[in-house]
Model the fold of this input.
Amino acid sequence: MAESQTKTIRFGIIGCAQIARKVIRAISLASRATLHAIGSRSIEKAQKFAALCGLSETLVKVYGSYDQVLDDPCVDAVYVPLPTSLHLQWAILAARKKKHLLLEKPTALDVHELDRILEACQSNGVQFMDGSMWLHHPRTARMKELIFDSKLLGQVNFIHSTSTTLMPPEFFESNIRVKPDLDSLGAVGDLAWYCIGAFLWAKDYKLPSIVTALPGTIKNSAGVTLTCTASFHWEDNTVAIIHCSFLSESSMDLAVSGSNGNLHLADFIIPFREDSASFEFVSGAKYSELQIGWTAKPEELIVDSKLPQEVLMVEELAGLVEGIRDYGNSPNGKWPEISRKTQLVLDAVMKSIDLGCKPVNL
Done:
């Protein structure tokens, strides 16, 4: 029993955003993690949030400041779901306190801020990971096997992705994601992060050479982007198109087309079900004689998942932290590299918007 306790990674959470409830549930379901502390800007808010989440204050420390969570010597790793404008300050402080970092996306206001966060993590020997949960689902690994099988999908040449959600009127009045002093990246940071991450994943994280925001960007009166469409071009002639919006009904589409086949799914960010997820794949399809049909139709491939993807994310991070703490391993550089490339492309989209939809070279 004592051995298993020493190998449990104790999480702290700073900030009481709604998405933190999902991560609290994930920590409770993870075998390698336990929730040790939560903190907010006041003890009253922290206690209210703890009650909402059904947390017992005899089992979970409840603090009235973020500093108290970071100063708790029992906390191994922290989840940070704060507004993006606060990431730089608190992520760097967490790293300096030797706390491993699960940072909600978007990771920073720009890549320069993220570089400062990553430097703090590296110099203090702590693991960094952002909250892109879909990357940890077993479906994602299965799709990647097909994408990189040259006989099945062939050379990837077109990617299309959407992330949209129809927000209620009150969202546009008070939500942090439409406030320039809190989350100035708007829908680009909140939604396009997933689309950008998806096409980079499909291209094995090779950066596009040209990024162009397309006409039709919609902003609120404070200048925060609510809707954006953008195109991306690679030197090998691959093209990607993404669309993100707070003004359209929910969609989470991802389509990857290659010289031999196509892959498509409609729920790549959040699967329709927790215990399994599917996608459609077809290879070698042609038009039938007289072009009145197809020689093959997409096959639905189902991938079971014993745990929700957010639990798998927590398990992945906890395993890396265990390796650093208990076996002297170095932090895994894969996750900060993925975040940095995503942020770099996101910055280029924002720059193109600011330039009136002119192309931006990477």
In short: The longest strand covers residues 156-164. The domain at 134-309+343-361 is CATH 3.30.360.10 (Dihydrodipicolinate Reductase; domain 2). Residues 1-5 have pLDDT under 50 and may be disordered. The first helix runs from residue 2 to 6.
